[in-house]
Amino acid sequence: MSVTTTPAKTPPPPAGLKGNAKRKFSLAQLLLIIAGALILVSAVRVITGADQLTSTGQISAALGLAVPIGLAGLAGLWSERAGVVNIGLEGMMILGTFGAGWVGWQSSPWLGLLAGIGFGVLGGLVHAVATVTFGVDHIVSGVAVNLLALGATQYMAKLFFNEGDAAAKGGNPKQSPPADTLPDFTIPGLSSGLESIQKHHWFLISDLAGILGGLVTDVSWVTVIAVLLFVGTWWVLWKSAFGLRLRSCGENPIAAESLGVNVYTYKYAAVAISGGLAGLGGAFLALVTSHIYLEGQTGGRGYIGLAAMIFGNWRPGGLAMGAGLFGFSDALQLRNGGTTVHALLLLLVVLLVALAAWKAYKKAVLQAVISAVLAAAILVWYLVTDDVPGDFVGATPYVVTLLVLSLSAQRLRMPKADGMRYRKGQGK
């Protein structure tokens, strides 16, 4: 007697592991979107006279401010792709600022950079032990890491910076002595030429020159490292077997375990890498932005990095755009005050009108009406004022964060098992 067997069909991979071709923009579409955004910003600059909007200095400052936010977001991406929510990014950045400042002033700033990464990894491992090994709620553990990091660094700062050689060189309970400067570079000829074109204030041409000039003027080598980390993250997570296994832990850890993946190991690795990246973001603040560790230096950038990661839909490319947007808004309020932020109100009106038209086309009447009403209110604000109050200017990055998340919420898809407690063998 013969037995006929029907070969079992291979189950399709989880949705998060498949290429989402329907939602991807083609290169031509992306270029059109970028060109449209540049034309819109250029038009706003010409109408309002806010020439600093796309100046070389503005873009250079925005790039420097975007890097720690981007690294924090990249840290969150690694952790959450493995299924571990990382609210503790702020605390890991704080540990990175302290480690970089402590080691940096005593030796080389490059060693300080490595120390910042190492301190961040320690914070990541604490979070991994709590969430992966002991099954603590991920949000609770992340908040605990933030509080622990803040208390520990305050204590260690009093211990190491308030006496002896450190105090003699400018240290105190709230800051470290200054470290040496990390090198940066400017492309000669190209930088000065682009700045010259930008100063003519020509429509679109000067804006493009200002943006390109900011990307080749006084650029820290740590910024180059951060860019390479973004590219490397994309390749490792989406083009390697290691990345496929790690993402499977965030989509369906039970299925991953059934295929021989050691889920605990991959989660630990992801959260440790997450901590190291957040620590690098903190080290950037301590050694590139200010050359010292300073209490409260992170200023909530860990949370903004988390928002940038969500805006980017848990992907490096979108995350980079989100970090750039938040860095740009932060640079506006730091360098130019209320005048340039006031010019952005007009840009916001145009975007809200476009959003209202799109929602009306999609038959989302309530959202269209809300967008139109907001656009009208902001237009009135723009017309009857010449400046923006200082308190609102300081809140610009956080307002932008809320607006971006509210507008992008409908297209987001987090890893399916993100934040879920997992126990080895629970699928048996």
TrEMBL record:
UniProtKB keywords: Cell membrane, Membrane, Transmembrane, Transmembrane helix
InterPro entries tied to this protein: ABC_transp_permease (IPR001851)
Entry keyword annotation includes Transmembrane: yes
Domain of life of the source: Bacteria
Membrane protein topology class: Multi-pass membrane protein
Cellular localization per UniProt: Cell membrane
Transmembrane segments: 27-47, 59-78, 84-103, 110-132, 138-157, 208-237, 268-294, 340-358, 365-384, 396-414
One Pfam family, short name: BPD_transp_2
PANTHER family: GUANOSINE ABC TRANSPORTER PERMEASE PROTEIN NUPQ (PTHR43370:SF1), SUGAR ABC TRANSPORTER INTEGRAL MEMBRANE PROTEIN-RELATED (PTHR43370)
Name of the protein: ABC transporter permease
Source species taxonomy: Bacteria, Bacillati, Actinomycetota, Actinomycetes, Kitasatosporales
